[in-house]
Write a structure and sequence with these properties.
mainly beta, 12-stranded mixed sheet, binds magnesium ion
């Protein structure tokens, strides 16, 4: 496992209670001891959880199914660090203009034979190019606690992590210093697709 090279395709999977909740193919930009970076081109097809009526779900309910029919709306360059409970996603529009940093609170990546798994922590921090920020999906985190999907202590740890992120944003620490906002992928890289076995 591991030892991915730039240009390799991996699967980044979200799990809820051991089951796959979403699976996104991504191109490896860097796989180094201190940082992992991935690129997802706009339009990349991925699998997402849908409820019995076919709607995309925000929280797990009994009987969700994985539909391999979602498409990444924007291209994304993401960063994850060992032992750190969030990832930073840089989003770019179709003209390659930097849109924002999207900080996804999540468990640290766990290597799998095809890539990496993690658990999404629901709360996000959205950071504009001028580094003004706002929390996203605070209500969803509260709802998850009410439904017993997260304990109050787990939710508190997620809020603490968000507070650490906000301090890094306000201090302009990398990558919130604007480094990487003009980064472009290698034009020779593939549009990634989910490899066989992604749902096991
Ligand atoms: Mg999230």
């Amino acid at each position: 496992m591991g030892g991915w090279r730039p240009g390799d395709v991996v699967v980044l999977r979200e799990r809820w209670r051991g089951r796959v909740w979403a699976a996104r193919p991504a191109v490896v930009v860097r796989d180094e001891p201190e940082v992992r970076m991935f690129h997802v081109p706009a339009g990349t097809r991925y699998a997402a959880a849908r409820g019995p009526d076919g709607s995309l779900l925000e929280l797990p309910e009994d009987g969700w199914t994985l539909a391999h029919d979602a498409r990444a709306p924007e291209r994304v360059l993401s960063f994850a660090w060992p032992g750190v409970a969030h990832a930073v996603l840089l989003r770019f529009d179709p003209a390659d203009r930097f849109l924002c940093w999207y900080v996804n609170l999540q468990s640290p990546l766990e290597p799998t034979p095809l890539g990496f798994d993690y658990v999404d922590h629901l709360l996000d921090v959205l950071v504009a190019p001028d580094r003004t920020w706002r929390l996203h999906d605070e209500e969803l985190l509260g709802e998850a606690v009410r439904r017993g999907l997260l304990s109050p202590a787990e939710a508190e740890a997620v809020r603490d992590e968000a507070a650490r992120v906000v301090r890094a944003v306000e201090a302009g620490r990398p990558p919130f210093d604007g480094s990487w906002t003009r980064w472009r992928p290698d034009p020779g890289w593939p549009v990634p697709t989910l490899p066989p076995g992604w749902d096991r």
